[in-house]
Design brief:
six-stranded antiparallel sheet
């Protein structure tokens, strides 16, 4: 048997081609550091004997079937823990465009992760090569990657390694987001570091989008370019990923990637079972009606959909004809008379309304006169920004309109801090609710301090000078002149506190 031939491996050295780990023989390295290999495993089946069913018990063993996979290898405890955590994060994200490990196995000090073997090409090759993309194919590439990042953040994961090399394209025109080895769980770090990680991911996503769109055969609309430029600069709202997806769909409808761009043409028969299943799916009706419809070749997709729609319309027309044929002629005559009466009534009503509009009533004239004299009755009323309902001292410290929607973050901080100090001195927990953003982590901390009954001077902030340390769009990190830093979040009512740190470092 193939896997019976094995060589002794030095425990201090990395695996090499020819080694067998947990039943998988490493055939060919895919990386110079021997951390990834093409691996094969023998799957032995049994075939029934030819002839009478009475001889079924004497089935003869079939020739071994070799399964090819991509094998990630980790040596030692530290690398094994990183690989195991990466596989767990991939599984928790739940994105169809994040590749999952089929299994993870351990042997001695080694851990391997088994992935499907597919021929893939990084986006860095696409940008560096002489390739041109239609707007529709760029939508097909970018939307799944953006959704994968969005799902990761919603699941509490940060990628931290998004670039063109991490974005891949397989031979079926399907994009993948890879390189999850540096990903972290955001719940395990401070809220400031979690905010920075999310912002860094979105900014890197914007740079990837800007690079791949530069290969477009048609210039992108100005609205999309402006949004991507803002994402690259980091000055973006918290829903930047969703806005990018909307802007991409407004640009063009998804379309298949050109076959000349796909890697490994003509070599699908040497891939693993997962790739072979994808090939078979191209010829099935399931692949046409599934969620991945836009990633399939255009002739298969469009002709099938058009045929289904025409069939449905034909059946509806037949049912309508049969229903109409069963109606007696007398009912058609009655329906025609009713239609004529309705039309005459509509004409009479319209003429009466037009005459009434030409002569406005005295009450309407009075309303128009008062509307011209009072700005409160104009078509565009002026709304005052909603101020937080705090104690009397806090209202004096805030100042009117200081934290409204038009105020900047750095201008709002002194008034928010002054109002917070008054709330702590008055031991008023409900007052703090109006100063913090909904769900802010710092609100719970201040609530616990107020209910504890401790001396409020321990949590008061007397800093007068503030500097913007990081602009993350809807969240800004502000550093004070003393040993205090904080973050503020943009809300519908203006800037509100998010979290406060009494230390020299916010991380």
């Amino acid at each position: 048997m193939l896997l019976e031939r094995s060589t002794e491996r030095d425990r201090d050295a990395r695996p090499r081609a020819g080694d067998v780990i947990s039943g998988w023989r490493l055939v060919r390295p895919l990386r110079p550091d021997n951390s990834e290999f093409v691996g094969v495993s023998e799957i032995v089946g049994y075939e029934r004997a030819q002839g009478s069913e009475h001889w079924a018990a004497f089935a003869s063993p079939a020739q071994p079937h070799l399964e090819h996979r991509r094998i990630r290898v980790a040596v030692g405890q530290a690398e094994s823990e990183v690989l195991a955590r990466e596989c767990a994060i991939r599984d928790e994200i739940g994105s169809e465009f994040v590749e999952l490990a089929e299994e993870t196995l351990t042997e001695d000090d080694l851990r391997i992760a088994v992935f499907p073997l597919q021929q893939r090409r990084s986006w860095s090759e696409l940008v560096a090569g002489d390739f041109q993309f239609t707007p529709g194919s760029l939508v097909t590439l970018l939307v799944p990657i953006t959704e994968a990042v969005q799902l990761a953040h919603q699941a509490g994961m940060g990628h931290r390694n998004i670039d063109l090399a991490a974005c891949l394209l397989d031979e079926f025109g399907r994009p993948w987001l890879d390189h999850w080895s540096k990903a972290i769980e955001l719940d395990g770090v401070s809220s400031a570091r979690a905010d920075i990680t999310r912002a860094t991911d979105i900014r890197a996503l914007g740079k990837v989008a800007d690079a791949i769109i530069s290969r477009s055969s048609t210039p992108a609309p100005e609205q999309l370019e402006t949004l991507i430029a803002a994402i690259c600069d980091g000055v973006t709202p918290s829903d930047a990923a969703a806005r990018l997806i909307d802007a991409l769909f407004q640009w063009a409808e998804p379309a298949p990637v050109a076959e000349g761009v796909l890697p490994g043409q003509g070599s699908r028969d040497v891939l693993g079972s997962a790739a072979n299943h994808a090939v078979r799916a191209l010829d099935s009706d399931e692949a046409i009606t599934g969620d991945d419809e836009t990633l399939l070749p255009a002739p298969v997709r469009t002709t099938r959909k058009r045929r289904l729609r025409l069939t449905a319309l034909s059946e509806f027309g037949s049912r309508l004809s049969r229903a109409v044929a069963g109606v007696r002629p007398v009912f058609w005559a009655l329906a025609a008379v009713v239609g004529v009466l309705i039309a005459i009534g509509a004409l009479l009503l319209g003429s009466a309304n037009s005459s009434a509009e030409n002569s406005p009533s005295p009450s309407e004239a009075a309303v128009e006169t008062s509307a011209t004299q009072s700005p409160a009755l104009t078509d565009e009323p002026e709304y005052e920004p909603i101020e937080p309902a705090v104690t009397e001292g806090a209202q004096d410290a805030q100042g009117e309109g200081s934290t409204g929607a038009a105020a900047s973050a750095i201008d709002s901080v002194p008034h928010l801090i002054a109002a917070r100090n008054e709330c702590l001195r008055a031991s008023n927990a409900s007052c703090l609710d109006e100063l913090y953003a909904p769900g802010a982590p710092g609100l719970e901390t201040d609530h616990e301090f107020v209910t504890s009954g401790e001396d409020p001077s321990q949590r008061l902030i007397e800093t007068d000078e503030w500097v913007v340390a990081a602009d993350l769009g809807d969240i800004e990190l502000i550093s004070g002149s003393g040993s205090v830093s904080l973050s503020v979040e943009r809300t519908a009512e203006g800037w509100r506190l998010r979290e406060i740190w009494f230390s020299d470092s916010i991380l």
